[in-house]
Design a protein that fits this description.
The structure is a homodimer. By secondary structure, chain A is α+β, with helices and mostly antiparallel strands. Chain A has a domain of 201 residues: Aldehyde Ferredoxin Oxidoreductase,  A, domain 1. Chain A has 23 helices and 17 strands. In chain A, the strands form four sheets. A six-stranded mixed sheet of chain A has the order 2-1-6-3-4-5. In chain A, strand 10 and strand 11 form a beta hairpin. In chain A, helix 12 packs parallel to helix 15. The longest helix of chain A has 21 residues. Chain A is globular and about 55 Å long. At the A-B interface, helix 14 and helix 15 of A face helix 14 and helix 15 of B.
């Protein structure tokens, strides 16, 4: 991976360049952080011409390391006003990496109303007209692009939500079967893509295979060892069997399942939407309870949820969606949740942000809690970008402002994921302090050995998690591989060194990860963020969660401020590179 | 003025107390700044229980000094998230001062849905039920309160907009005739009042006269001198003859009249909405071209605009409204603008914020520019708080977010007043750097001897103006008296010293004013503001104003940062007090 593709939508120029020295051996989330801090005006209008949209695979992207093909999409978030890295599965990252791209950077805004597709192949890249695709849902878009450009191409695209620059819009990536349901959902990056008049990336790596490891013998040894660990891990087996939905019963038991616009953490209908029920329903209906989103994944947390006739409803149906569009709305019918999920996917919407906005709409009296048909209608309004749709499709914070609802589950303007932060305070600390806003993927404490509704140890845990996660995001590894590699940093290092020919020790990887966070915080600071932005909304700190022993979020401000002390950058990136061969 | 009235809406307690030492000789804007910094959690939810709403007359309030009866209403603004002082005319300030109140502070939130009126008389204060008033427009509210509590009472009240906690809601104060059209319009303080379940203050000063000067002989001499200056000032005569509307031709000539959502600064229909046309129309129709909003005002900038049958349409019709709801919407009919003004007044809406939101709505395609009936219908929707009404009634910024309009004329979330900042850069500097957001009253350069669309000297002028204005806001003086007193600081000091028995020199008044700004900035900083918040929106710095020689707003960031260097507080308040007798 030694090329950067720069596409300027203002001049319509498409240029392949050598990466600057400072970007060497940075990829995924680390590349986004360094690039944004270096090249993008932090105070820019996120939907204006100074923002960029970056697609970058991780350092291990395109290799034979299992689950290493994640794609990082980044830019300045129109929801948070800060930096965003939104991480997705599927095959986009793999193919970009195989084509040799460290990053694809989309800059500028088109001067007229023309809309574009960016086609990237082994022989180069070009902008094509998006006529005929613009206006289509993501399923139709991907299907037609694969029809027009070949079954094997990977697609990253937006739906009508992104086209309409709605702030809940995400970017859909295709999976192994070409289905565009692997979402880089968070932070409103679909709106950024829409602002740039870019409907889709079409990536064709025909003729290219996996990127061979620099040290084949060492690679062979360590990959076998890693495979063995994955196959015998009970954590991984749980992901395979139940997917992320296994969490429903777990969070519900501790009062941490967002319910009724995050007003409580236990849902009377939890049993009907649990991972166990989901698996059973899929098995009875002959869907797929296990499914891999990218080739070479042994975790297979995904699933294919089907209707009573066995016809695909949506794939995958995941915990975040089940909670945000289920318990959070007091909807206890998996088929309805699947329908909502499908609609969001097709319109190109983040299900977390959309579910949170619907919860706010229900709290604001726009429709009653539990109104299944109403919820579907509202999502359809978002798809059509009616005024009601625009109110909800711009996310929970804006919906709350318009509807006069003060109890809005957001941090830095972005909706919380499906961990109620009074009941699960470690994740609450992450929500508060992550440069990303309320992302669970930035450092989730749900599997930590903590008393979740006590404030003890939460900040320390979150800090460690937040400083570890970027290692995976920088490498392009699925976070779930942490279930094995977290306990085996030596395996992780051997994988990296065998593939890249580096001589990293774990501290080097940690240093890059910490630098990633520091760069992100540097960008946010330049954008105007202060420690005031590193807090949860007032009501979470004052109104008890009745399902979690009436806990409030009471992690003290000083502890939150110390999660990311603004240190000098860790052992500099240059030092890390110097240790590479 | 030696009493503070504290009303706690959570406990329904009403307590009169001695002011703490640190509040001594602070009133108006200075009191708000010091109180907010000292007692209110800067990060609080503006519509939540930790915010306060303060009513405070100036230090000269209730005296016989001309135009000294302004009322300062303050709190944390739900629009800007920072401190707000919103200054209004009428008789509320005068009566509060005569009753001996330095400030009335409303704290907390009611525990149930009960709504209240706060009645304040010479014998005490009490909370009464607002039943029968809640839901009424401000005209009916004031009329009925005067019917029920006596013709002479003063009223501060909100309309349906404030009740619905819409962020464009202001607070209406009654004038000499009991008409509630003297607005503390800006910053959404009507929503704060609504959040507290408080419909109105009813202030009865029966039996009390003007506050006598401490040094009657000196007062007699200086007040005569001041009267003479007022009567012979051509600036004042211009205000008397044309009101603020005299500015239409002036700003239009230099390309600074906000037109078509601030996209340009010259309006083809300017002549039809000018001060001259306004005066002529009023004279022909036998309205009142001159009108005083408070007793003892010699400036009389107000007017009573009537229809063709001579029936009152609205009083006053002012420049800001004419520009924001006229040229900004490409509406060139004074009768329509008067109707929009009346509706806003009655619903309890800031005409600046509402006009800016309508401009954004037109830019976003919700209705066409120039659509008079559409504009009226939209304001009616705000009054009814329909979904469309909520989108617009929460101000220009929110409307822009919902409708996907990036060109929104706001700073710190609050709409710009009627001075296009690329054409009138001094006021642009004030918009950018005032702790208040885009208020013209914080330091307007329109009458400065500057080339308005050049960046030279603008920051220095704005700084001086911003550091002078609080002198007037602290004393309760109408800003227009600066037209005379600005050139005669010795008269100002003599007035103050004769009335209060102090021995202030002008530097003392300047010190209090600078402290006021520093306290405000201290609050805003604690609320999370940085210099990033002291900037105009991106498009004003990049897109030329074709009517102002294609100027962009190009005052450099360092100059903006230096307008309010975060100095140690000036000569401390205590020092100033020590010089008082």
């Amino acid at each position: 991976m030694s090329k950067i593709l720069r596409v300027n939508m203002s001049t319509l120029s498409v240029v392949t360049e050598e990466p600057k020295e400072e970007y060497r051996l940075l990829s995924g989330r680390a590349f986004i952080a360094k690039y944004m801090l270096t090249e993008v005006k932090a105070t820019c209008e996120p939907l204006g011409r100074h923002n960029s949209l970056i697609f970058t695979p991780g350092l291990l992207g395109g290799s034979k390391v299992f689950s290493s093909g994640r794609i990082s999409i980044g830019g300045k978030s129109p929801l948070t006003g800060g930096i965003k890295e939104s991480n997705g599965g599927g095959v986009v990252g793999i193919k970009l990496a195989r084509l040799g791209y460290q990053a694809v950077i989309i800059e500028g805004l088109p001067k007229d109303a023309q809309k574009y597709i960016l086609k990237i192949t082994a022989t180069g890249a070009e902008l094509l007209s998006a006529e005929g695709y613009w206006g289509c849902g993501v399923y139709e878009t991907a299907a037609r692009l694969r029809q027009d450009f070949g079954e094997k191409v990977a697609v990253s695209c937006i739906g009508p939500a992104g086209e309409n620059r709605l702030l809940a819009a995400g970017i859909a990536n295709t999976d192994t079967e070409g289905v565009p349901s692997r979402y880089s959902g968070r932070g409103g990056l679909g709106a950024v893509m829409g602002s740039k008049g870019l409907k889709a990336l079409v990536i064709d790596d025909t003729g290219l295979g996996s990127i061979e490891p620099k040290r084949p013998e060492a690679f062979k040894r360590v990959i076998q060892e890693y495979a063995q660990l994955l196959k015998t891990s009970p954590v991984i087996k749980n992901y395979t069997d139940f997917g992320t939905a296994a969490l429903v019963n777990l969070t519900n038991a501790i009062g941490g399942l967002p319910t009724r616009n995050f007003s409580t953490g236990r849902f009377s209908g939890a049993d009907k939407i649990s991972g166990e029920t989901l698996r059973e329903t899929i098995l009875v209906r002959k869907g797929k309870p296990e499914h891999a989103c990218m080739p070479g994944c042994l975790i297979k947390c995904s699933n294919v949820y089907v209707d009573e006739q066995g016809k695909d409803l949506v794939a995958p149906l995941e915990y975040e969606t089940i909670a945000l569009m289920g318990s959070n709305l007091e909807i206890e019918d998996l088929d309805v949740i699947a329908r909502l999920n499908y609609l969001c996917n097709d319109y190109g919407l983040d299900t977390i942000e959309t579910g949170a906005a619907l919860g706010v709409a229900m709290a604001g009296g726009l429709l009653p809690f539990g109104d299944q048909e109403g919820a579907i209608r509202m999502v359809e309004e978002i798809g059509k970008a009616t005024l009601t749709g625009r109110v909800l499709g711009n996310g929970a914070m804006l919906a709350g402002k318009v509807l006069g609802v003060l109890e809005v589950p957001v941090v830095k303007g972005q909706a919380m994921a499906a961990y109620e932060p009074r009941a699960i305070k470690g994740t609450g600390v992450t929500y508060a302090t992550s440069p990303m806003g309320a992302d669970h993927t930035a450092g989730n404490s749900i599997r930590a050995g903590l008393k979740h509704n006590s404030r003890e140890g939460q900040a320390a845990f979150s800090q460690k998690a937040q400083h570890t996660v970027p290692i995976y995001d920088d490498l392009g590894l699925c976070l779930f591989s942490m279930g094995v590699l977290g306990a085996h940093p030596e395996i992780l290092c051997q994988l990296v060194n065998a593939q890249l020919g580096t001589d990293y020790v774990f501290e080097d990887l940690q240093a890059i990860a910490r630098n990633t966070i520091q760069w992100e915080r540097g960008f946010n600071q330049a954008a105007g963020f202060t420690k005031v932005n590193d807090r949860l909304p007032e009501h979470f700190t004052e109104t008890p969660n009745p399902a979690a022993e009436n806990a409030v979020f009471d992690v003290p401000g000083e502890e939150l401020d110390n999660v990311h002390p603004d240190l000098e950058l860790q052992k500099s990136q240059k030092d890390c590179m110097d240790s590479a061969c």
